[in-house]
Amino acid sequence: MKHLHLLALLIFGIAWYPALAQNSHKVLREGDTQYDKGQFKQAEEQYRKANSEKKSYQSTYNQGNAIYSQERFDEAAQKFEEAVTAATDKQSKQQAYYNLGNAYFQDKKLDKSIDAYRQALRLDPNDQDALNNLVLAMMQQQQQQQQQQSQDQQDQEPQNQDQEQQQQQQAQDQQIQNQNQEQEAKPKEDLNKDEAKQLLQIVEQEEKKVQDKMKKTSGDGKRKTKEW
Hints:
Layout: H1 2-11, H2 26-36, H3 40-53, H4 57-69, H5 73-86, H6 90-106, H7 110-123, H8 128-219
Helix pairs in contact: 1-8, 2-3, 3-4, 4-5, 4-6, 5-6, 6-7, 6-8, 7-8
């Protein structure tokens, strides 16, 4: 953990190259002075002003440093991207890539941070800070991926349990439904047979009653003569 802490501190070690040595412009010198005093907001304003008058690698790069020191890492990354494009020599481009990697790292954009450090190392394979920060960024990326995989598994387990319970419930419901259908179907067949049998018995009984009545009527059918 102590080693990792040391690497994390290296992230804050932005390569700083004052524009004074390459550009004696008054605004740039004022920006350098403000930056050295830790007045990063004022330094940013001076570099921005210098950039508006004459855009250059130095003013863009130092403006990115001033913004980075205010922990506005996304904006700083944009300035370092511009510095990479504006760089006219290998060393300047390498420094811009290194600071770009730092800005992306602090902004938690590890993929872009790793790519920027690799670009810096291609331009200067001996840059130990870039190598250390690249290793740190890759370790954190791996840790995040492992945590994400673990979280995905935890999220998936309740979902699988819910699906399994749902399937079991559906199977039980289907079984009950099938049983109900069978129970409903069987009584209908038996009931029809019973009804037919009962109806037949009723018909036979009615016919017998009619026949018995006719026989009785026939036996008493002699007409009586009226006696005068």
